[in-house]
Specification:
The structure holds two protein chains of two kinds. Chain A is an all-alpha fold. Chain A contains 14 helices and two strands; from the N terminus they run ααααααααααααααββ. The N and C termini of chain B lie far apart (100 Å). Classes of the chains: A mainly alpha, B alpha+beta.
Chain lengths: 352, 166
């Protein structure tokens, strides 16, 4: 189990599951399949709890809510997808959607929605009180700037950011990408302006949008939180779920830049002195990545979308997509080739 | 019943203007006090330079951590001399740990690794650890001056002040 859970297998597995899910949503959201998945998850935790180390990590007060969150996340993904699939089947048969069947009238937010939200807020307040009574937040020794706890972990909702920081420079992972995430989420209503599928659950009507969103949510958010919480140990090394967190675990991680690979390994000569010659291959590669796929996609897979959205909207959407995919791509490059930077210009603090 | 007094437009506006002026003055006063509070009356700043004992106190080939807690400095004695490394990771400023068994500095926050020289070789740190100015004081002790930093990527490690030849 420990050897299976190397980052490459975990990410490849998660991405495979993701593609399975968006390809066969009907089969995978059937109650039987959902129960089987839930059973597998529970069985994994049940068996895992017999392992002392796994039990220690999972039952740490900080981590208990994250375990809970995983099950809640699974439930809501299933719930929404199940409703969407049910509507898709009905529409194929020419029947009205479930939402239309319930009522065709509009309902006022106040009091109908507010009342439900109020009750839920009460339930959550009670839950928070109970949680704080039974799971004590540890009070540790006073902060000392010369001592960083090992491992130093961000709050769970920032673990995705912390994982990004391993692969990108702080100005990209800490400033540029979070800004783009917020901008991208703000831009959704301006990019997806098709009213024909609004007002009810549907997967078929919004396949592209839902798929992209799920990729970002599953892989770049939930999976990174899982990795950061359960699989990152002392010295920010990668540990299997049943592997004891050994402070002295030695992982050779000598990083190389693309320029090293090309000039020293490929052409077996020294690095050129001028940075623009040294980094030309990397700069060209990045420009190629940002320019050529949008053009190809506009002619092939996204032909319809390009026509519907127009050049400006389409360009913005594809740019967001490419930058989102840049994170897993860079992670794979780091794991597979120990690649540090595609473009490394420490002279200007500009590393990609 | 008292007769209602009618205020004409001109006096109303002048009262109104005075009220605003008073409000603005009060707000400015309150804000200025808040701003004043941002500057502490007493600042504790540890001295930027300190005496680190005699060169003979350091064993050749080891990373000495005795000043890490107090001044944030590692002293590294090589056969040629001695240099003072800053204990601040160049990635986001955590404090790395010296792992003697692996012969490297390793940051617990994002896994950056540095050789004993301070050169970064793994993880996300974009540049080597910084060195501080080091010299011999008149009494023969080592003097470490944290107000001067030397960065390898700028070629500053060639500066004789960044390395104490012994």
């Amino acid at each position: 189990m420990n050897s299976v859970s190397s980052p490459v297998t975990i990410f490849t597995g998660a991405i495979a599951v993701y593609f399975l899910f968006i390809t066969f949503p009907r089969q995978l959201t059937s109650p039987r399949a959902a129960l089987a998945i839930l059973g597998l998850g529970l069985a994994f935790f049940g068996i895992g709890l017999t392992d002392g180390h796994f039990r220690k990590i999972v039952t740490t007060p900080d981590n208990v809510p994250i375990v809970g969150m995983l099950f809640v996340f699974g439930y809501f993904t299933w719930f929404a997808m199940r409703k969407a699939v049910a509507n898709d089947i009905r529409m194929e048969k020419g029947e009205p959607t479930v939402e239309k069947l319930e009522t065709d009238e509009k309902v006022l937010v106040f009091p109908y929605l507010i009342f439900i939200e109020f009750v839920i807020a009460l339930v959550y307040a009670v839950g928070l009180v109970l949680w704080s009574i039974f799971l004590k937040a540890p009070l540790e020794e006073p902060a000392n700037p010369t001592v960083s706890p090992n491992p130093s972990k961000a709050p769970w909702y920032f673990l995705g950011l912390q994982e990004m920081l391993v692969y990108f420079d702080p100005w990209i992972a800490g400033v540029l990408l979070p800004t783009l995430i917020i901008l991208g989420l703000c831009a959704i209503p301006y990019l997806d302006r098709d009213p024909s599928t609004s007002g009810f659950y549907s997967f078929k009507g919004r396949k592209a949008v839902i798929s992209v969103y799920l990729f970002g949510f599953w892989i770049l958010w939930i999976l990174l939180i899982i990795v950061g919480t359960f699989l990152r140990g002392p010295n920010w090394n990668f540990f299997g779920p049943f592997e004891v967190w050994d402070v002295h675990k030695v992982v050779p991680l000598v990083n190389v830049n693309l320029s090293d690979l090309i000039f020293i390994k490929g052409l077996s000569r020294g690095l050129p002195k001028q940075w623009f010659i040294r980094e030309a291959p990397g700069i060209l590669l990045v420009l190629f990545y940002l320019a050529v796929p949008p053009a190809i996609l506009a002619k092939t897979v996204f032909k319809e979308a390009y026509k519907k959205l127009g050049a400006a909207r389409y360009g913005f959407l594809v740019m967001l997509l490419l930058l989102m995919c840049a994170l897993p791509i860079k992670m794979y490059l780091r794991w597979a080739f120990n690649l540090k930077y595609l473009v490394a210009i420490p002279e200007f603090f500009f590393n990609i | 019943m008292a007769e209602e007094s009618q205020m004409d437009r001109r006096s109303f506006l002048s009262w109104f203007g005075m009220a605003w002026l008073a409000f603005a003055a009060a707000t400015t006063g309150a804000l200025s006090i808040v701003l004043r509070a941002l500057f502490p009356n007493v600042v504790f700043e540890p001295p930027t330079s300190f005496k680190a004992g005699l060169p003979a106190d350091y064993e050749i080939g080891t990373v000495d951590e005795r000043w890490k807690e107090k001044y944030g400095v590692w002293m590294i004695r090589t056969p040629e001399g001695i240099y003072a490394l800053a204990t601040i990771c160049t990635h986001l400023g955590c404090t790395p740990n010296w792992l003697a068994a692996e012969n490297k500095f390793k940051c617990p926050c994002h896994g950056s690794g540095f050789y004993k020289t301070g050169i970064n070789f793994e993880g996300p740190a974009p540049r080597p650890l910084e060195r501080y100015r080091i010299a011999l004081a008149e009494d023969g002790q080592i003097l470490v001056d944290k107000s001067r930093k030397f960065q390898q990527e700028k070629g500053e490690w060639n500066n004789p002040e960044s390395f104490l030849n012994l």
